[in-house]
């Protein structure tokens, strides 16, 4: 079986629907056909300030959301990034073959550093894509299913793998990003031309997986649309309606033209009600599962520990080979 690797940051109490549609739903479907590794990337999360008192809980909650959404921890290797020290170690090695300018061209870094300002931007945020490359390359992943915003980071990963292989000898599989074009970018409900994000400024435009169903429905009913009242897909002219259509399509498995037919001659009120119902139906059981899993944190932690052992075995093999190839003296 080919290897698959992906991860998410535990940067909020809950995942948002972009994470769910753009990543988690694909992971769930792909895990049977691949030897899959899924991490909760806590070392990535601390590249922006996190409250130390709640980070561990957020990490556990993120893992619970993977499982509740259908990732099977007995089959896929679901673990916490910081539990496997090879991630940080390989990131260091890779940082020595990454160009300063090359890292500076990452658009996500440019956006975030602009938002936070130079003084609150850490070097860790700058080297974040190198750590992501380490995640992927340690496991010799063939494919990396992600949303559109991570594409550039996977391209950097490919460049670093090729560079290392040609400079020091074959150590890494060169991975491919796997991006589901129609769902690669879910937009903020209040601001449907910008990406929905866990770090959005206002809560009203973000659909959280663990929100109360009534809150989710309310946010959808209040989503920004337009004035012409026609349920039709048009990214340029009707970004709000188009975004809701993509969400509805993902939740129901229906195609866009079929949705246009379904709501022909009906208003946005009807349409939004249907979207709200579909999302609530999908999220409800996941939310209940999460709450149940969190009832027994010790068991959850044991599952994560077992999987970290599995991950570590693979990662250590790659790291040892890399240390040898770079020429570091082996400890006797
Ligand atoms: P993160 O935590 O920001 O997001 C997790 C996944 O969700 C996708 N995503 C979206 N997809 C569609 N629409 C949206 N609005 C949306 N928002 C987020 C992201 O593309 C991602 O797939 N650096 C990564 C985590 C990471 C990783 C890795 C991923 C670390 N190491 C190795 C893959 C492989 C990140 O911050 O994702």
Automatic annotation (TrEMBL):
A motif ('KMSKS' region) lies at residues 195-199. It catalyses: tRNA(Trp) + L-tryptophan + ATP = L-tryptophyl-tRNA(Trp) + AMP + diphosphate + H(+). Its EC number is 6.1.1.2. It is found in: Cytoplasm. GO terms for biological process: tryptophanyl-tRNA aminoacylation. The keyword Coiled coil does not apply. One of its GO terms (cellular component) is cytosol. ATP binds at residues 9-11, 18-19, 147-149, 186, 195-199. It comes from the Bacteria. The keyword ATP-binding applies. GO terms for molecular function: ATP binding; tryptophan-tRNA ligase activity. Keywords: Aminoacyl-tRNA synthetase, ATP-binding, Cytoplasm, Ligase, Nucleotide-binding, Protein biosynthesis. Belongs to the class-I aminoacyl-tRNA synthetase family. Catalyzes the attachment of tryptophan to tRNA(Trp). NCBIfam families: trpS. Homodimer. This is Tryptophan--tRNA ligase.
């Amino acid at each position: 079986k080919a290897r698959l690797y992906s991860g998410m940051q535990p940067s909020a109490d809950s995942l948002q629907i972009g994470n769910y549609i753009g990543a988690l739903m694909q992971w769930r479907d792909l895990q049977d056909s691949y030897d899959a590794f899924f991490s909760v990337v806590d070392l990535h999360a601390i590249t922006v300030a996190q409250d130390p008192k709640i980070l561990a809980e957020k990490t556990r909650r993120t893992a619970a959301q993977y499982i509740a959404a259908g990732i099977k921890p007995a089959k896929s290797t679901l673990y916490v990034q910081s539990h496997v020290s090879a991630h940080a170690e390989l990131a260091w090695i890779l940082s020595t073959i990454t160009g300063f300018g090359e890292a500076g061209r990452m658009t996500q870094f440019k956006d975030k550093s602009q938002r936070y300002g130079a003084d609150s931007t850490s070097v860790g945020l700058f080297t974040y894509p190198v750590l992501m490359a380490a995640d992927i390359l340690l496991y010799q992943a063939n494919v990396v299913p992600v949303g559109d915003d991570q594409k550039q980071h996977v391209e950097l990963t490919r460049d670093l793998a090729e560079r290392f292989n040609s400079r020091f000898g074959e150590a890494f599989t060169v991975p491919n990003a796997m991006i589901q074009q129609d769902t690669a970018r879910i937009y903020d409900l209040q601001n449907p031309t910008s990406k929905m994000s866990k770090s959005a400024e206002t809560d009203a435009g973000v659909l959280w997986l663990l929100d109360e169903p009534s809150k989710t429905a309310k946010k959808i009913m209040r989503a920004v649309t337009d004035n012409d009242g026609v349920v039709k897909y048009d990214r340029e002219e009707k970004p709000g309606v188009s975004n809701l259509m993509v969400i509805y399509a993902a939740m129901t498995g229906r195609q866009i033209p079929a949705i246009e037919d379904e709501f022909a001659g009906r208003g946005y009120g009807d349409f939004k009600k249907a979207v709200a119902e579909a999302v609530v139906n999908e999220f409800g059981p996941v939310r209940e599962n999460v709450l149940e899993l969190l009832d027994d944190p010790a068991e959850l932690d044991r599952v994560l520990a077992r999987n970290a052992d599995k991950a570590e075995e693979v990662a250590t093999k790659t790291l040892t080979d890399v240390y040898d190839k770079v020429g570091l003296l082996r400890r006797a």
